[in-house]
Design brief:
CATH class of the largest domain: Mainly Beta
Radius of gyration: 27 Å
Helix content: 25-40%
Shape: elongated
Mean pLDDT: 78
CATH superfamily of the largest domain: Cupredoxins -  blue copper proteins
Strand content: 25-35%
């Protein structure tokens, strides 16, 4: 009778683990650009919305970043950076790619130096849409965070959550088998 209760508890635990949802998430990220006297590094970018672009000016002159986010011909972003200054952050500019405000697509980020065009950064923005295709996959749901839009390839890494679920499943099955063997030996 006691072994049957153990068996039921292990079976119930096994069922709970099999239908347990997996949580996968990521936070907002920062992407940094360095504006040197002659170059911008990196020279182009592919980013997801909810990313903050940080422009660091290490040149000897002011730089102004201008963008037309809604593509209506009027600049929606204008951020001025001073020449490099190690004692303050006035030589940097932060622009948040706000979800719901930015559309997916190509943007030209104009960087001005002394009121003349210095560089146009080609920026590709993709929307950070999360999709879930299955809740009952033992190794975790097939969940996409759109990394393939940025890197250009699918990511098949095994996450720690998947390994944890599989390890717990193996331990429960081993316990179930030991309970059955003990019942056979005692009975």
């Amino acid at each position: 009778m006691r072994n049957m209760a153990r068996f039921k508890a292990l079976a119930a635990s096994l069922i709970i683990i099999m239908i347990m949802p997996t949580v996968i998430a990521h936070g907002a990220s920062d992407y940094q650009f360095i504006m040197r006297n002659q170059t911008l590094q990196p020279s182009e970018a592919k980013l997801l919305d909810n990313t903050t672009m940080i422009f660091f000016n290490v040149a000897d002159e002011n730089r102004t970043i201008k963008m037309d986010v809604d593509k209506d011909g009027v600049d929606d972003v204008e951020c001025v950076t001073t020449p490099y200054n190690a004692t303050s952050n006035s030589d940097e500019c932060r622009i948040w790619i706000e979800p719901g405000v930015w559309d997916a697509g190509n943007y030209g980020v104009r960087i001005m130096s002394n009121d003349s065009l210095w560089y146009v950064l080609n920026l590709v923005v993709s929307l950070d849409n999360h999709t879930e295709t299955s809740n009952f996959d033992l190794a975790g749901p097939n969940y996409s965070l759109n990394e393939n839009l940025i890197d250009g390839f699918e990511d098949d890494k095994t996450t720690p959550v998947k390994i944890y679920q599989l390890a717990l499943l193996v331990v429960l099955i081993a316990g179930l088998l030991l309970t059955i063997k003990r019942d056979e030996f005692n009975g």
